[in-house]
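Before a colleague's protein record goes any further, I have to sign it off. What it holds is a sequence and that sequence's fold in token form. Would you go through it and say whether the fold makes sense for this chain? The record follows directly below this note.
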Amino acid sequence: MGNRLLVCFIALCSIALITLLSRTRNLPERLSYGKSPLTRTAMLKVGDGNLSFWSTKVSDINGTCRPVNNVVFIKTHKTGSTTLATIIERYGYINNLSFVLNPHSHILTDKLFNRNMAYKSPPPLDFKENHKLQFNIITNHARYSRIEMESVIQSGAKYITIIRYPVTNLESAFGYFRLAERLDLTHNKNPFYTFVNEIDKYSTESFFRRPYIRNGQMYDLGLNPENQKSVASIQKKIKDLSREFDLVLIHEYYDESLVLLKNLMCWHFNDIVYIPKGIRSKQFRYNIDNSFEMKIKRWSLADFLLYEHFNRTFWKKIQTYGQTFYNDLHRFRQKQHNVTMTCIEEGAVDTFDAREEKWVLVANATEFCRLLRLEDTQYWKLLAQRQMIAALHRMNFNFTLN
């Protein structure tokens, strides 16, 4: 399969790479399109308000564990998943790991994942002739399908996702997908209030992004709409997810979730610091009435049952972590604060996309700050370019970037 697979990629890689390069804007000038110039021994350490080079021999790694490089992240909608995706993408970029990617879009698929999608991806960096096609990471949007994903990911992968309280998840989706405009509710004082009070009306109507508006998190996790009406089907799915996932992060406890992730993956604190992505602007936020919960619970029962289950198991994981958890949480928040103070220009906001407010880097920001600031779409471009170029080089194509 090796030669034939690589030959098939030539046209795809060449066309897609040219397209990517023409669309690439605002990427850090110093970042390499070949192997990353940053390694685990040349990352930047955030500490005491300063940035300095550090080595892997630091106290925030348990000496008995080895960093996990293989991970499947199921990216749910409007849960803080884009920020988490960039954390994983940054780790993969720095450590020269290979991703399953759609060469034409940062969205892998809006359907259930199928192993054939991996054959459309730029091949892994270490791909060899006559070897099985296997990657390290899936992190772009793709609906969960365990057997199909396992078939293209290296062994020992951790499976993770993130969920959010369904009321605020629905409000976030309503605002971000601009449903007030699409459902002709802009004339109302509070369009979201009107939507919720007339929510039964929309149970029979078809509208934009509907799968992500009703039980959207369970939909992303593989439960089809026709199975969302049966409590037995929902509970069986939750039981399966509880068995199959190594960690389900909780949006409302973001920092706590990341400390659990760090422990699970045997990563450094610097691997999980972040600059938030996808922060909605005020004009797309809506007030939430206390009466909304019961109405939305009837509307998105599957998501409520999902959240209730994993919110319980979340605190059990913290209890299992032990007495050092809150010390680690405090240390992480100190580092996170230092990132904000060191990397972000106070009071400056990029509002190019009217739906979002993006933080702006300080002048002469360090390379680590720029890696933190990269968007999901920018990492997709960098990763796809690197894997495409590696494939071309394996075919003895002399390809350079100006």
